[in-house]
Amino acid sequence: MLHEEIKQATTQHHKDAEQHSYGKEIMSKTLTRNQYIQLLIANYTYIKAWEKEWETSSLNLPANLNLDGRKKSLLLENDLRQMNVDPESVKAFNLTPAQSYAEFMGRMYVIEGSTLGGAMIEKQLKLNSNLEGAGFAFYGGYGKDLIPHWKVFLAELNHITESDKKETAIEAAKVCFKAVETCFINARQQAMS
Question: N or C: which terminal CB in the chain sees fewer CB atoms within 10 Å?
């Protein structure tokens, strides 16, 4: 199945991106407010560009993906405002539109996988006393629709069976992980300057 092939092929890319996302601090409940803001900015940078891409895409995307129900930019905007950050001050990532359905789905694998992980992150953030009064709408993701959305996505992804299209999806996921890593790095550097 393609999702398993992507997972295996992108293991290192996933780890590389994660190393910049304050995982240790999240799990130990020591994440600071400033670090949380950096995470929100990094995610918003990419998610804003990602949503703009599929809103204007000329690709024939299946209706059952329910892309409108997967929007997260408004959740991020609300969380940013709760941290006194104007979302308008955050520049979107420069994302080149996907040229094929396989490329689009490879990118979507990264975004949907991170939404799945967000549920665990949300629980830890809520237990962190440094973040009292912060909003966690983004990490709460789809709420009760999390698993149904994931299953629909996997079913669509696994319909890609031709080897060249599978390779395109895998490469797109690798590139997406690298782009997300760049967003995390940039958010940290901006906070330090």
Answer: C
Q: Which residues contact 98 (CB under 8 A, 6 or more apart)?
A: 53, 57, 59, 104, 107, 172
| Whether this model's pTM surpasses 0.90 | yes
Look up residue 160 and give its two tokens.
Answer: 């890609």
Burial 112-148 (b: 16+ CB within 10 A, else e): bbbbbebeebbebbeebeebeebbbbbbbbbeeebee
Residue range 46-94, pLDDT digits in tens: 999 999 988 888 899 999 999 999 999 999 999 999 999 999 999 989 9
Q: Tell me how crowded residue 49 is: count the other CB atoms within 10 A of its CB.
A: 18
Q: What is the dihedral of CA 64, 67, 69, 71, to 10 degrees?
A: 160
Contact 40, 138 (CB under 8 A): yes
End-to-end CA distance of the chain: 44
